[in-house]
Amino acid sequence: MKNLIVVFVLTISVLSCKNQEQKKDDHQHHKVEKKETSKKKPLSPHTSTMAMIGDAHIHIDYSSPGVRGRIIFGGLVGYDNVWQAGAHNATWIETNKDLIINDKVLPKGKYGFFTIPSKEDWTIMINKNWNQHGKDDYNENDDVIRFKVAPNISDKITEHLEYKVNKISETEGSISLAWEKVTISFPFKINQ
User: Fold this and answer.
1) Which InterPro entries does the record associate with it (predicted)?
2) For the chain, how big is the Rg over CA atoms in Å?
3) Which pTM was predicted?
4) How many CB atoms are located within 10 Å of the residue 123 CB?
């Protein structure tokens, strides 16, 4: 009878340990899966660019979508339609000094940056409403500055949308946008 009790206790102990090991394995497997999904990069990462031109600080904030083998302009981004010039929320530009863009004064502040791409030229709109999702609340009446630029087409592909603020001198600079095979650029001056 003693032997039977010892065998019974040992059997219960072994089964209990196996059950604990199984739970431990399940738990660790769950952690590994979770770790792998957290490594996934966003398709349109949030980013920004900025520069000092003299004592003017110009900052552009945007989400940077990738080409990923798609036709972008005239495809994903339709011609002759308002585009928030990025992914997700509208791209915004902020300056701590008044700028002169296309012979018009852009007062210091924060603005939405929108475009209307087309084959021949692009319309650039700098808009009072900087805090909006996409172009959902875009209103032409809120444009502070609106002008056209000619796109430069290249054989080289820029995989992710990229803005640059380029310093030309202590009082002049340019802003450029490049994505897919298209680059647009326009100059500005610091209003002295």
Assistant:
1) DUF2911
2) 28
3) 0.78
4) 16
Q: Which residues contact 14 (CB under 8 A, 6 or more apart)?
A: none
Type of residue found at 101: I
3-state secondary structure of 54: coil
Q: What is the mean pLDDT of residues 124-153?
A: 96
Number of residues that this document lists for the chain: 192
**Which is it for the CA torsion 65, 71, 76, 77, positive or negative?**
positive
Give me 95's structure tokens: 């300056």
* E-assigned strand segments in 13-54: 46-53
> In b/e form, how buried is each residue of 126-144, taking b as 16+ CB within 10 angstroms?
bbeebebeebeebeeebbb
pLDDT (tens digit per residue) in 96-105: 999 999 999 9
